[in-house]
Amino acid sequence: MSADTKKRRPVPNIAQVRKSGRGISRRTLLRGAIGGSAVGLALPWLEAMFPGRFAQAKAAALEPIFGVFFWANGLPWHAKHGEAQGQGGHPDLWTPADEGPGFTPTQLMTPLGSHPFSVATGLEPKTEVPGDPPGQGDGHMRGFMVTLTGDRIKPEGFDHPSHTLTALRPTLDQYVATHEDFYGAFPTRFRSLEIGVSSARFHDYGHWNNISYNGPDSQNPAIMSPTQLYNLLFDVPDDLIAVGRRARLLDVVMDDAADLRTKLGANDRDRLDAHLDHLSEIQRRLELTSGTCDTAPEPPGDSSDLLIKTDIMAELLAVALQCGLTRVFSFMLTSPATTHVFTNLGVNNDMHATCHAGEWEQVRAITDYQMQAFGRLLDRFAATVDPMGDTLLDRACIFGTSEYGEGWQHSVKELPVVLAGRCNGNLNPGVHVREQGGNISKVHVTMLRALGLETPSFGWNGGETSEELPGLRA
Amino acid sequence: MVSRTYKHLAIWALGTAVVVGGCSGNTPAQTSEGSSSTAAETSETGTTGTTGESSGTDDDTGDPPKPFIPGDPVMPRLTEVQYRNCVESLLGLGLPSLPLEPDTNPYLFYNIGAATTVLSELGTQLYEESAMAVSGAVFADEARRLTLVGCNPEADTECTLNFITRFGRKAFRRPLTSDEVDRWVGIAEELAEGDPWQGLRYAVAGMLQSPYFLYRVERGEPDPQDPTRRRYTAWEMATRLSFLLWNSPPDDILLAAAESGELLTTEGIEAQVERMLDNPRTRIAIQSFFAQYLDLSRLDGATRDPEVYPLYTPSLIVAMRKEVELLVDDLVYRQDTDVRQLFSTRNTFVNSELAALYELDAPGASPIAYVPVELPEDGPRAGLLTLGAFLTMNAHESYNSPTARGKYVRERVLCQEVPPPPDDVDLNLDPDDSDPKTLRETLEEHRENPVCAACHEFIDPPGFLFENFDPLGGYRTLDNGFPVDASGDLDGVPLANARELAELLKGDTRIASCMITQLYRHAIGRKEVFTERPGLKHIEGEFADAGYRFGELLRAMAVSEAFRYVGDEEVLP
């Protein structure tokens, strides 16, 4: 369905008051409407019914945004990553020489331009590495899981050919999206969006072309197709009565699920319970008359060029954030251990193999290119301004990171950390914090507190910390 | 530096009695065990100690055979292909095909991913949208909806009830309970709003979202002959057979065979298998199994620099996969012969691109026409492990990976498990060594370093056998300007090249047991548990007696107790 022929639903929000299935649902209202004659629901009537709700919805539009920008295979290695890397004699193009406010961005940060961002350097995982079972020390997995979950991988062993790698707990995007204080009683249409650009995957880790998890074996697959993302965001059905029927139908589907639930053992019941939760969420989404965009962008193209595709996906994401469709996202440029072949940069082997082969200059070129993509996402956010004059970047806290420090030795020392955006004034841009050997979860604590989420501590299995990084929060 | 013990490096041979030396420090094999293990739990085997209680199998010791004890039930969600096949079976062809959640393939198989992965929120929404789209398309067409429903709900008061009962039986692959009939008739009437067709449309859309449609619920029932055991019900057997043999839901005949109880008997199952194997769907389903078992998806999208490999084109990569499909189809269907020949036969099928790669004359071949050829007796190639697909998907873009090729031989062909590199080991070979040499010479360093040698002694020697083939599978005699040495060995048997490996594999019993293990995992949607191995051993005997014909393996598996019995998992209160 094309954007211009489609009628957008008006903004008024009826269903938001249907807190967790209690309260009054739009379905109830629709039934009344269908039974009678009036189908168009007049706004003043609703305002009379629920005073104060609309003011609240307006205020919600300016609440903070949290996002993850992920790129694969870390940084070009240098001496700070370890002794072996030092023998290569390669310069450090990432760590700024000066610390504190007003630091000078380094060569690899240049693509981030003049956008507000801070960096933290020297950090590493502190999760314990037990000798048995093996695998906890693997750079990709240990680094990835700890940067995005604060914990170890699951299984707590390395089952190499079996493709079973998964997370023990939610990744940071989901931690925020499901935190009771982040959305409160009024979640947006989507609690989060997961977006991917390169679909290259690393086969030995099976289905690990994804960075968003709810817990073990529970992933939120990234949407890789611009058209699919566009349809999800903007091709929202606008026949309220039909939508009401669809929502009602889910009650019956959930009755079947509740019946099945009584016949299952522990594992399958957990899976079915997750499915049931999702059905409730889909039902809520169907009943939500607000949280749609009044105007949709043009239907998107597609591209195999990562920068162009980043632009396409970033534009859709920016509109979605601006319209209040969501406030949490993950943006996976490339997946961990990516096998993407950057032929456009004259690199003939896949990136993971290129790292292993010790091709420093090629890794430098690829990292620079990946930072250009990050920069273009920030460009789009900076160019998206709301009527009050605030940009998305003013509201956002974007955690830019990768799965380890560098890919030659797969060292998890010196993890790359970028905090982009002002987070509604709660983050100080332009700061470089260096803590050599520091706990990566201090970044998590910092961001979560900047988002207004009470965080006494974060991290598990040896990675716990109650400290934040100094100077980053305003 | 590495300062840990290597007991975890034990190589354990899945589905075989073989304990491999070299990479193991001679630690006894670790295997999964315990009938209460689930797929998720068994994924962690090999990590819980090294007491060795499970080393070897009974036939090594002369003890009486151990009994087969089935593992717990699983609840696979339909894979994407299965979902689409179900929709087609229920509603017909030509309906909208909306995106669905991507499948995952832990342990190589989509059915295992389907049984372990949790559906995402987006995936749930995609099911909702798909159900609305396909039901909407059918009911918008007056002729089509009448054909589907079989009666006119506007004229016939029994029509809704009859349709729901009939459609539900097919969608849920069992009769509906009376509560379910009430539930779905009720919603059809509620949402009709004066238009009973509309009500039926929503009921169809709802049933396509029901977990009873989307998941295969197979919990079994007490076996009347031995109530301590649980057998799959006749309805569950219909579903199991049809997804195994067709990757599709049961047809009306199979459902009738379930209803009559036929599928509770060996004879009844055999009769249905006989019928089903003749259906073209089986051919597609077998291809799907082989593609997963042989890990062929790794080939998709493989690229090479055309400057270096002038024969490379994306269509050549597609042809490599097609070649394997034709070869499998030939062995399984046209010849109906010993399927283990896959790894040794000199017969194959080439189009003009593959003929050029293999330097063969292939009259009649064109970019789209594949012709059967016999690979030269004195040539370098015989069997899958000398064909483009294997050689390409186990190489880097610009250089070979004897390690990946050797690992494939160990893991995919022989079902042995190669452990990961030890934590903290330097994974890279000295890059600053400026002496020019072959890749093989560089990799020899793996075996000079004792830390690496433990496993590379195990992986690399079979991998070196393929050094006569470049990263695109073309034949070569030079690497980096130096003569290629393609000698190696398998488990201590010295071999000159890949042709000799193919000869050796002809007599390797591990190939058949590996294939059975993989087919079983694919069939049941999880890894086998240790106590199911005797059941697989039994199937292996039947497979051998039948001359290793794959159709007979399917038949043997379909009637086996390993496929018909299930553990008694505790139902949560």
Word description of this protein:
The complex is a heterodimer of chains A (474) and B (573). Chain A is an alpha/beta fold. Chain A has 2 domains: 64-236 and 295-450, Alkaline Phosphatase, subunit A, CATH 3.40.720; 237-291. Helix content of chain A is 35%, strand content 9%. In chain A, the strands form 3 sheets. Chain A has an 8-stranded mixed beta sheet with strand order 2-12-3-11-10-1-9-6, with helices on both faces. The two termini of chain A are 45 Å apart. The model of chain B is unreliable at 1-59 (pLDDT under 50). In chain B, the strands form 4 sheets. Chain B has a 3-stranded antiparallel beta sheet. Chain B has a two-stranded antiparallel sheet with strand order 3-4. A two-stranded antiparallel sheet of chain B has the order 5-6. Chain B has 573 residues and is mainly α. Among the domains of chain B are: 80-214, no CATH class; 292-424 and 437-505, no CATH class. In chain B, strand 5 and strand 6 (482-483) form a beta hairpin. The longest helix of chain B has 21 residues, at 314-334. At the A-B interface, strand 8, helix 9 and helix 10 of A face helix 5, helix 8 and helix 9 of B.
Jot down its keywords.
heterodimer, A: 474 residues, alpha/beta, Alkaline Phosphatase, subunit A, 2 domains, eight-stranded mixed β-sheet, two-stranded antiparallel sheet, globular, disordered N terminus, B: 573 residues, mainly alpha, three-stranded antiparallel β-sheet, 25 helices, 9 strands
